[in-house]
Specification:
The protein is α+β, with helices and mostly antiparallel strands and 108 residues long. Strand 2 and strand 3 (49-54) form a beta hairpin. The protein is built from two helices and three strands, in the order H-E-E-E-H.
Length: 108
């Protein structure tokens, strides 16, 4: 069963790569924008909203609905970028097993 030992070593190496990938994901920060850069939001790797920046021109009376829409759009932009970055990191960590349907492995 020489092959079993090799498989176990590969599994341990993958487990280490996955742990490192989780650390990298935790350290991620992505920015999403909307309104031509008038609104930007920053999301952490956990999905937590870390920062919202609004252009001063949006602070005029009656702009509340516009600001709300732009914040939602900026968040959606950041979430798409975060999802893509997380998937890239996990694919890299999975190496040759990426895309295989292995029970217990995340799908990316």
């Amino acid at each position: 069963m020489k092959d079993l030992g090799s498989i176990m070593k590969q599994a341990q190496a993958m487990q280490q790569r996955m742990a490192e990938a989780q650390e990298r994901i935790g350290a991620l920060e992505v920015e999403g924008t909307s309104g031509g850069g008038m609104v930007s939001v920053t999301l952490r790797g956990s999905g937590e909203l870390a920062k919202v920046v609004l252009d001063d021109s949006l602070m005029a009376p009656g702009e509340g609905e516009v600001v709300s829409d732009l914040v939602v759009a900026a968040h959606a932009d950041a979430k798409r970028k975060l999802d893509a970055a997380q998937a890239d990191i996990m694919r890299e960590a999975a190496g040759p097993l990426a895309g295989m349907n292995i029970p217990g492995m995340p799908k990316f």
